[in-house]
Amino acid sequence: MIDDTDMTHIALLGDSVFDNASYVDPGESVSDQLSAMVDRNSSISLLAIDGDITSDVTKQLLNLPQDVTHLFVSCGGNDALRAVEIINKSVSTVGEALEELTLIREAFKDRYREMLSSILSKAPNLTVCTVYNSVPGITERALTALALFNEVILQEAVSLGLPVIDLRILCNEESDYSTVSPIEPSAQGSAKIAAMIDQLVRTHDYGANESRIYSALNNPNIKLC
């Protein structure tokens, strides 16, 4: 007989990093592979929506199950995509360019901070993800701009004592990205992400209020499906 105290319910929030079924074959998405990895006492709720930005996550929380035990959010990539036009904007000085980037960073910080507050008001065991930066074909300019978003994510996570899955290191191979859309996880990338989520649920001490960064490099025992 299953002891209810051993039950885990994992909710996936955010964007197409988790909601990537449209970009892989059936059964190869993050949520599908995670469902196959977790034990029989665990359940998965996919609330993430392809295309959503940080300010959309509050709406996703309306469907949050009451018995959720662990929340994972991967969001910020679409915020970065919407700001990418700044890379090609003409300015007269480097200082003007930095001012433009600062405005974008501060606006994202406000949205991301509000998102985290909304999630934590529902359940405490939250893990955030950085935005990956090994997307095939990404430009050096885009990488520089993307670093601003990851700086915010890391700073906010550390300030709240939240664990972080560093997708920059975890998904660092071209084969980690879908051939349908290079900004989405492939079957291999999905397996890496799912395995990392499973490992955090099983091993991370959320009660310690300790911010730790998790990646494939410091989790060598991850086995891909």
Number of self-contained structural domains: 1
User: Which structural class is indicated by helix and strand composition?
Assistant: alpha/beta
**Main beta-sheet annotation:** 6 strands, parallel
By CATH, the superfamily comes out as: SGNH hydrolase
The separation of the N and C termini measures 29 Å
The overall pLDDT average reads 88
- What is the total tally of β strands? 6
Q: Judging by the overall fold, what is the CATH architecture?
A: 3-Layer(aba) Sandwich
Give the number of helices.
7
User: Can you tell me the overall shape?
Assistant: globular
Rg, nearest Å: 17 Å
* Oligomeric status: single chain
- Would you tell me which CATH topology applies? Rossmann fold
Order of helices and strands: EHEHEHHEHEHHE
Q: CATH class, please?
A: Alpha Beta
Question: How would you describe this protein?
Answer:
The structure is a single chain. The protein has a single domain (4-218), classed as Rossmann fold, CATH 3.40.50.1110. Helix content is 39%, strand content 11%. The protein has helices spanning 30-37, 57-60, 77-82, 94-120, 140-160, 167-170, 187-203; strands at 8-14, 42-46, 70-74, 126-129, 164-165, 213-214. The protein has a 6-stranded parallel β-sheet, sandwiched between helices. The chain is globular and about 60 Å long. It starts with 7 loop residues before the first strand and ends in an 11-residue tail after the last strand. 38% of the residues are buried.
